[in-house]
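User: I'm putting together a teaching handout on how multi-component assemblies are represented. Below are the sequence lines for each component of a complex, exactly as they appear in our records. Could you produce the 3D structure of the whole assembly as structure tokens, so the students can see both representations side by side? Please keep the chain order the same as the input.
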Amino acid sequence: MRTHFLKANEPGVLRGAEVIRAGGLVAFPTETVYGLGADAMSGPAVARVFQAKDRPVGNPLIVHLASADALESVAARVPPRALDAAARFWPGPLTLVLPRAAAVPLVTTGGLETVAVRVPAHPVALALIAASGRAIAAPSANRSGRPSPTRAEHVRDDLDGRIELILDGGPTPVGVESTVLDMTTDPPVLLRPGGVTLEELRDCLGEVGELRGDDDEAAGRSPGLRYRHYAPRAQVTIIEAGTGETVIASWIEAGRPVALMTQRRITLERPGLRVKIMPDDLGAYARDLFAVLRELDATGVEGIFVEAVPREGLGLTIMDRLRRAASS
Ligand code: TXA
Ligand code: MG
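Assistant: Of course. Below is the structure of the complete assembly, with chains in the same order as your input.
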């Protein structure tokens, strides 16, 4: 299949809408990462998303709507607290897990009786949903297991020849995926930290639970936990700031080139070591994270050492993605 590559302007979006309506696949920018979109209500279209990404069929997709008004078309029931969260954070990087409406195919929800929904805060995503007149199911537009794409070129690297169209809307402003919040329990439970912080959620909703560990029970509620994630080809290791000297030296002595991601303004250049200074501001750090992992990977380093950031605010999200990149 030939993959078309268009600017995400009005003609591009209209073309994208035609592809979605015809059951095809369109990669498009959201404020978080690029999504790989298909008509959420079409089982065959959604099945192609799983194929294109090599995604395990048990890992459900997020359904994207143009506004909360369309919630009733995909959710069987919307608890009042979900409406509070929607009013506060939509459009934006928050995904709500709700009881599935019968019209949503099980292939979209990975066989679950719940559906994940969000209203993205990106003009291209909103225009595509509006122009197609469809709810759009969209996982991140990477090959399964690879870092999420924050630029159209990342999508092309992973999916060229596997999808109909890529809409290039430039780099995505948030850079990490949406926060996934299970609204089917009281209190709600955080399934995946993301662009909306746990602190912001608690400020809006009061008590918000967290999943404990990566055990089977946790994976039952959050199927994404079962699968390999965000992994560059190089081996990722998280270290405390300033503690990497010895281990890095041993890799270099063994002839294995490595990279170090740090927020310290250090000059440590030496043969076999590539230092990447990351922003102090965690918003800027999150925006760059996946692009930096891909960029370092492309240099051919065998290991990427990353200094830990505090687990608060977006730091919780950054550490979640790093931990998963490191665990594969
Ligand atoms: O920011 C984002 O969320 C991006 C953009 C494109 O919207 N999408 C995204 O999709 O990150 P994906 O498929 O890469 O991640 C969706 C996550 C997975 O961890 C999946 O298991 C979880 O949401 N999920 C989807 N439906 C669910 C459900 N019904 N119950 C629990 N978790 C669900
Ligand atoms: Mg993903």
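A couple of points students might notice: Residues 30, 32-33, 35, 59-62, 93, 95, 97, 109, 112, 114-116, 120, 138-140, 177-178, 180, 191-192, 222-224 surround threonylcarbamoyladenylate (ligand 1) (CB under 6 Å). The chain has a mean pLDDT of 95.
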